[in-house]
Specification:
The protein is mainly beta and 151 residues long. It is built from 1 helix and 10 strands; from the N terminus they run E-E-E-E-E-E-H-E-E-E-E.
């Protein structure tokens, strides 16, 4: 008899293909989301009378990568460009962006929240006369914090 996986129970890793992105209480469909990482920069220090001839490392400032999102191009869908065009000298409407990894019932299992997010770059699709692909645009978002929750 073949193994149906029932012995494994709920100990399977989550698939990454079922997710949702929301901002301004509106859900936006994306094909791909990447860049959900954070890093703490080390501070190296050594005092002059240290018997060790090396530095010690302490945690310093946190650094967050820009999040890159890709989605299909749709007729009369200019939400990204409208948001991007609001940028003026040191003025931009910052938003909270929520990215949720969903279980098989559509409930969030992991949630990443980008704080004070704003668009820093938009890349329009490339155009090829002999291509048989969907038009994809890319939005790069800068943010000031990444909050992660497991539900």
């Amino acid at each position: 008899m073949a193994d149906d996986g029932s012995k494994q129970g709920s100990n399977w890793p989550l698939p990454k293909f079922y997710f949702q992105v929301k901002w301004d209480s509106e859900e936006v469909a994306f094909q791909e989301v990447s860049g959900l990482d954070t890093e703490t920069q080390p501070i190296e220090y050594r005092h002059g009378n240290s018997k060790e001839f090396s530095t010690i490392k302490m945690p310093g400032l946190k650094k967050f990568s820009n999040v890159v999102m890709k989605k299909g191009v749709f007729v009369k869908d200019n939400k990204f460009w409208d948001w991007y065009n609001e940028i003026q000298m040191n003025i931009i409407k910052r938003k909270s962006v929520t990215i949720s990894l969903l279980d098989e019932t559509g409930k969030p299992t992991m949630v990443w929240t980008l704080q004070n997010a704003w668009p820093t770059k938009i890349t329009a699709t490339d155009l090829k006369s002999d291509s048989n692909e969907t038009a994809i645009e890319t939005l790069e978002i800068a943010h000031e914090g990444l909050k992660i929750e497991n539900k």
